[in-house]
Amino acid sequence: MNAQQKEASAPKKLLFRILDGIEWLGNKLPSPLLLFAILAALVVVISGIFSGVSVTNPTSGEVVEVKNLFSLSGLEYIFNSAVENFIGFPPLGAVLVTMLGIGLAEQTGLINASLKGIVFSFPRRLLTAALVFAGVMSSVAVNAGYVVLPPLGAVLFLGLGRHPLAGLAAAFAGVSGGFGANLALTSTDAILLELTADAASTIDPAYADTITVTMNYFFAAVSVALITIVGTFVTDKIVEPRLGTYKGDEAGDIDELTALEKKGMRRAGIGFLLTFALMAYLSFGPLRGDGAYIESPFFNALVFVIFILFLIPGLIYGIVVKEISNDKDLTKLLGKTMATMSGYIALAFTAGQFIAYFRETNLGTVIAFRGADFLDSTGFDGLGLILTFLGLTMVVNFFIGSSSAKWTILAPVFVPIMMNLGYSPEFTTLLYRIADSVTNMITPLLLYFPVVIAFAQRYDKKLGIGTLISMMIPYSVAFLLAWLLLLLVWVLVGIPVGPGAPISY
């Protein structure tokens, strides 16, 4: 046990022991690659056991039945879909494209030089808060934050002599746990609006027409500060002290910038500004589209935009510092970047099969609707109903990672139930966003969970699912408790959750 842990108070020591137990138990599981393969096989077997079990969507009347993959037709699906399940694994393309740009910037030394500048100019006491805040705000770029911020957070912390996994955890907590908070409107707001309005129209079509995309804005904006403060506290007082001193192989010493590095930074900075200006022009000009900005062609191509924003400065920097002198050098550096992602690519194959099988069998949908039936049968009202709804949504999040996919299933059931009990659709949507956010970081079924594991294994090659979950549980619990306290104040005072969005219906 390190010195920091010895000095910990009794409650903190107990917490560390509990987290150590969770880590030990989780790491007894097979490697993530093998675990997803085993889970895929279990889904096939379970689908055979529960084949024919069905639920009925109370809104549409559609019957959803568990599809049997433990059959001849299921075997045909498994063989015929294997390649498509791998290629179609949602994070795969986004991760590889983004990492090409980030990787070039890293291979040429641009990221290292940038970190030197940050280390020697940025107030160290604000780094954790800045990292969590950036993670929360990254939902403006949909899921890009999962790919960009955790590895950068790790490198930043390492450069400051801190544990890189603490930096990774802080960024991951901000991106995933803070997904329900933002100072700006995001594509998630637009998607949830449509689903909430459709569900509310089954009870009150006139009220449904009054629901706007800003329905949760007040609460979400205040939550940014809340999650930033709580995430900073958990990182500095719980996660990093528990991790102790980093003793891995990655170098963390940072020297002063050389004259050549400064010259490269200036040229790369000019390149970035020009590239950013071009992207801004495209976003409001040729690629603006005719609809809402968050649905524009430009917004839908943010992964490629991030790739360009890293690639161009990285290329310029590499040329200036003579890391790149011809096309062969560029090809070699990009190849090195992809080589670092080989483990993730292998992991994506088994993870892609599991997620595809789970979706194909309809098991997640059946679990969600059966959970809704349970909530309806409890007869709860008031606080009991709110807590039960939150708990049920958190459980469902362990089976269905996509926020929009879950709300597509849950909204037609829960929004009418809550309206009949006096709660507005906007408030119900807010409850859903809280429950969805706080469990994102601890469910292996989050599409980007394997991505974060791959990033973390750079600093601890033996790191397993248990280690990552034990690091993230303090954030999950702290975010939930903080949000519940804020929610209690909000309800007692009766503040609208958004413009024209009351708590009561």
Can you walk me through this structure?
The structure is a single chain. This protein is mainly α and 505 residues long. The chain has one domain (22-493). Helix content is 70%, strand content 1%. It contains 22 helices and two strands. The protein has helices at 3-6, 10-27, 32-49, 72-87, 90-107, 110-121, 127-137, 144-159, 164-177, 187-200, 205-208, 217-243, 259-284, 302-320, 327-340, 342-361, 363-378, 382-397, 403-420, 425-440, 449-456, 465-493, and strands spanning 54-56, 63-65. Strands 1-2 form a two-stranded antiparallel sheet. A hairpin with a 6-residue loop joins strand 1 and strand 2 (63-65). Helix 3 (32-49) packs parallel to helix 16 and helix 20 (425-440) packs antiparallel against helix 22 (465-493). It is globular. InterPro entries: AbgT (IPR004697).
